[in-house]
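Replying to the earlier thread about multi-chain prediction with a worked example.

Input:
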Amino acid sequence: MRILRFLRATAFAALCVGATANAALAKGDDTPQLATPPGITVQLVGKITFGLIIGYNLDRNQQFAYADAKGMTLYTYGPDADAPGKATCVAACAAVWPPAIALPKSKPFGNWSLVTRDDGQKQWAFRGKPLYTYTKDTKISDVNGRGLDQGNWQTALFDPNAGIVFPPGISAEEIPDANGQVLVNAKGMAIYAFDGNVKKADPACSGSPCVSHWQPLHAPELASTVGDFTVVIRNDATRQWAYKGKALFTFDGDYESGYAAAIGLDKKLEPAVVVRYFRPNEISIHPTLGQGYVLSTPKGMTVYRRDAYVYQLGGHGIRRGVPPRPHVGRDIGTSMSGCDAACQSMWHPVKADAKAQPSGFYQLITREDGTRQWTYKGYALYTYAGDKKPGDMLGNDIYDYAFSRDPNKAAERPSRMTAAGALLWMYAFP
Amino acid sequence: MNVLNLLGGAMNRPIFHGRGLAMALAGLAFSTANLQSAEAAQTKSFVVSWFTPAIFSQDDDCPGRNPSIDGIYKHALRQMNLEPKEELRMFEKFVGTTGGDEAGEIIINRARIDGKPVNAYANPLAAPDPVMFTVTADKSFGFNLDGKEGPKSFIEPQTGEKGIDNEFFRAMGCHTGMRAYYPNRPLQGGEYQWDTIRLTQPAWLVTIVGEDLTKDGPVNVIFDRALEATKWDALSQTRADMTYRIDPNPRSHSEAKGYLKNGEVTTTEPFRFNMVADPYYVQEFRFKDARFRLKLLPNGNIDGFIGGYQPYDDPYWGVANGGIALECCAGIDFIGMYHTLKRLADAYPDENGQNTHISTAYRIEGVPAFTVQVEGQTAEAGRDSKTR
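Result:
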């Protein structure tokens, strides 16, 4: 029965996905799909443990899952598979499992479709599966509904590449600097898409003598079209993979998975993004000295997060040396604890416009004055007045110790710190 | 145009070189137009290989040794009026390194505010002062920072200079983990910290600039941080002759005037030394009235000392951020350390007359390196961490 449900749901999802994909192709639109629609966020869910030393640990069992605009975990419901295009959790069920209602004027795309409920409201579905929250989840990262009703309720895990068919040896992984899921080869190295005709201007043979940093991603002799992947016959008669009509290359300056060193090197060769992540209009990324790409304003001014010191054996100063811990960022919120008036005057919140909606890893937090501030992976975002030009990072590594020098007054600090901690400012990276 | 600019190419704008200077100049000798500027200054650059507290331990330099960790914690429990029997019961189950048990929780929260237990590392003055032993010997590495010869001042063991100010050594020198018979380095600050962070910390750079570094004369000494971490050789030693880009962030840039004499550079004027470090050691070294002396060794390395007045919060936070997990390994009572540092702080009083800085000295060693200056961040005064 479950297999039947799965097959039905998959068939329906495939129809939906195929339809939208075809529509996109028909319009000649090769912009990668967004990973999430407006109002749907991505959260790290699962048990958060609090260590004695730093107070914050990440549980290895934590996973990324889809969540609503407030960050509450989304679930799928098994019986919905028997009624493609409908949501079967209604009435009393819906009182406990509220549907993920789409924002007005929402439109389906990619893996995301809309289900019309009996009351006419539109409910988001991922790959044909309607999505719900659970009333007994009270905070972000809760997954109290997981496995309930004999396993019918399951967490809607973040699966941005669902539905994409890859040839052997090619897959997609998150490359933060490219703001999305990017094709990678069997070694996990980034793949780049060439916006041009390899028969006329081959980046792999652009010099004289023919020397280049770009290596064609060769296809086997017997390879044929797989999904959006096609085979291009090169001038030397070898075969090369192409994605959505763009010939694919690797870059010999890439040494590590998760990075794409050639971003910005050649406008015609960009990372082959298959699913892009939402990024607000107020945020961009900008290259810096030593730390690679960091979040920035559209004008390139570095964007910072306020973080709690993490006790680790070095590595704070290296690129991405202190990974974000979303629950820590949420705990800190917009707190300026330890940052006096002069300090506060240097830090300016990255504010959202009135129409902004959370999506993906970006959420909104309402400040005391009623304005809304962008958060990224749980951390409120700021710019630093000491930075004068794009690429400046003078606000990085500024620490406010969180211990008291008064024997009669306890230290002001996040409650979970268990040593002499600190709040610090550090650049936010993608 | 600076003669060395010609070396730039795609590497932006190199201005300083170490061993490569002679080669560079030879390569450019044909360019007579540039020789005049080449003669204006000679430079030697180094990457710092070690930076550890300057400790000069001797036999009988302390009235007693401060206790190891079980002694520290038993003493802490005793200060909370626990019965010896109860104390023993707790220690039989004490896990030891990270707390997590009854004794650990009590030790972590051994401070009291309004009669309630609070985290001692976050509220060190709310815990009783265990009154640690301090150094009573008369010799210490360091510098005469205040220009005076007070009754408490030390005598420098290498130079014989009197009036040496190093109250940090006095405060810490009777802890086993901080003892070192020169030229050995102390465990704390050495093996535990520097040796850990130098793997991943952006390298520290020292550049000496003078008219002719083979002769005695005035020099400028520049301290910078690199954009790259220190490079190592197969023996886990800092590798010589590697190239580093200079981070233009002014928070890790200091300049000082010095004098080269008989192969040793000494400061001629106090200066402000600032260097961001990994917080596993000290988040930021920031010395007021700093001094140094650096020997240019025959093998091309440098070895010497740098000192000044340091906010006493900084070395405290550098260890207390690890709480019980580091306290147990370091064998230092962090609460006692803070009380002692505060008591011995000897400069820059606040509005209540409490000194905020403590005299200190660190041993600094380096190997030759090439350094390259790059265009990048705005170079203007940054803001210190707000601790005072």
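The longest helix of chain A spans residues 2-26.

Feel free to reuse this layout for your own posts.
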